[in-house]
Amino acid sequence: MAANPSFLKYVDDHQADFIQRLKEAVEIPSVSGNLEYVKDVENMADFLIKQLTELGVKAEKRAIGSHTITGEEVALPPVVIGSIGNDPSKKNVLVYGHYDVQPALKEDGWDYEPFTLTPDPSGSGRLYGRGSTDDKGPVMGWLNVLEAHKKLGIELPVNLKMVFEGMEESGSVGLDKFIESEKDGFFAGQDCMCISDNYWLDTKTPCLTYGLRGINYYEVRISGPSRDLHSGVFGGTVHEPMTDLFAIMSKLVSPEGEILIPGVKELIAPVTQDEQDKFEKIHFEMADIHAAVGGDVTISEDTVKTLMGRMRNPSLSIHGIEGAFSAPGSKTVIPASVAGKFSIRLVPNLGINNTTECVYKYINEEFKKLGSKNKCEVELTHGGEPWIADPNHYSYRAAHKATVEVYGQEPDYTREGGSIPVTLDFANILGLNILLLPVGRGDDGAHSTNEKIDTSNYINGTKLLGSYLYELAAISKD
Ligand SMILES: [Zn+2]
């Protein structure tokens, strides 16, 4: 069922009001995890509560405990929850967004004040400001949908529950416990979930995102002498930790990106025909990635291989060495202890534990082969599981139809190469199908300077979120 035409017309007629709403939201510098902005984050929660309540939503703030910021114990930003509609004949839909933002200072290189929503003076339709796309734009999109229905006096086609978090940019501390505690309360009985907190792959093609890679981060520490040594005195007489570490690190991944740890490749879920088809249909050109990385340094020249490399295959990256001499100049030190840092991006069915087993076994075996008298310790410093949803679930089919209605084109089916940890928390605890439905474009610059959202994405995004609810209401669950 296509969206109510009066809803779509309302959105077109009220663009200026909707931009004003986003402007007010951006003006509250709700930077989480920073003592200076604790009050602003709270103000942003109040802003949401006030708007939601005016729009007919039963909304409340929930305290979720406290945390320590630079030695001071402060309350965690509250979770804002809201619910509207309670019709047993309608589907129950849960949506998530976050109202906190990344830090931003004009002197970081912003062209305009980061906490003032500024339209591009050249008339491109870009709206610059911290949080414009991540994630205040999408959150205001949901409010716009509510406003249109309230003002037009039409009911939403579904029962809608909302959860807006104020700690996403600072690790979503406390959210998992909150979800767990409300599993049989606020979150009970939901049919599906929609998270709007990621981006199109490019700047032209809407997409639906159905997977995220996980990550295991490792530290390999090699230590031997009890103090740093001089190579003129001890070079040639001791097993050097750095030499051992290079030997180990060089055996992790080939220059072509192939992971050399035995057992890892075998764990990867085989590519299905449906997946292959979805990857082949993605709108993507090698020039896009060349532009994004600033040079032609891609491993493959094939778009599907490149996309799979980024989205559905694991990758191993070497990040750095702690304890190594790294300043300019030529110091002749033999470091006593060094730690190599590397991570593996995880995909189905490479989990935290089975991957770590392979890593530990391999590094210990390889170290033994060196015959070194140094000590080698491997540690998993943090792990996050990969996530994948069924892209043929009715919620995805509804979003597909809504995309075609609003944009006149079929969406790409993408996966993110990185992680959005809250997705996993909701998926694991609530057991729901989750749709990642982006509003902004691939060049929005979510965490960087000059973050923006295009007016057309914000307005069409509002239509998309609303149309999705209509399609969801109409679609059969099987
Ligand atoms: Zn975000």
TrEMBL record:
Pfam family, one: M20_dimer
Active site: 100, 168
UniProt: substrate binding residues: 197, 230, 332, 345, 419, 447
Keywords per UniProt: Hydrolase, Manganese, Metal-binding, Metalloprotease, Protease
Binding, Mn(2+) 1: 134, 169, 447
PROSITE patterns: ARGE_DAPE_CPG2_2
Cofactor annotation remark: Binds 2 manganese ions per subunit.
GO molecular function per UniProt: metal ion binding; metallodipeptidase activity
Keyword Electron transport: no
Annotated ranges, domain Peptidase M20 dimerisation: 210-368
One GO BP annotation of this record: proteolysis
Cofactor(s) recorded in Swiss-Prot or TrEMBL: Mn(2+)
Site positions (Important for catalytic activity): 230
Family per similarity comment: Belongs to the peptidase M20A family.
Protein name as catalogued: Peptidase M20 dimerisation domain-containing protein
